Amino acid sequence: MEQFIIKFDDAEFDRLVHSGLQQAGPVTIAVKDIATEEGRPGAVISFPVAIDGVVHQAQAVTTVRLLVRFLEALKVRYPDL
């Protein structure tokens, strides 16, 4: 499973947005109930990207537990959401 990195950094945000691959479609999060060797749920975050005019699927795989913790960190940072 992949790890998550969270950065509260305006410059890093801009660098990633302006230097990354062009997103070519919506973000999808798909969840599998039993995805780890321990029998825990996993999630894949996927979206299409365009490379030289050809659309490819990008993905990051993680556990649901880590994804929830990541979102909880955002909630702490932005409690008014």
In words, what does this structure look like?
The chain has 81 residues and is of the alpha+beta class. It has one domain. 30% of the residues lie in helices and 33% in strands. It contains two helices and four strands; from the N terminus they run H-E-E-E-E-H. Strands 1, 2, 3 and 4 form a four-stranded antiparallel beta sheet that branches. The longest helix is centred in the last third of the chain and has 14 residues, at 64-77. The radius of gyration is 15 Å and the shape is flat. The model has no long low-confidence stretch (mean pLDDT 92).
List segments where confidence is low: pLDDT < 50 over at least 5 consecutive residues.
none
* Helix-strand sequence: HEEEEH
Question: Strand share of the residues?
Answer: 25-35%
How many beta-strand elements?
A: 4
Query: Main β-sheet: number of strands, strand sense, barrel status?
Result: 4 strands, antiparallel
Amino-to-carboxy terminus distance: 29 Å
Give the helix/strand class: alpha+beta
CA-atom Rg in angstroms: 15 Å
Average pLDDT confidence is 92
Q: What is the helical fraction, as a range of percent? A: 25-40%
Note the overall shape: flat
The domain tally reads 1
User: Count of helices?
Assistant: 2
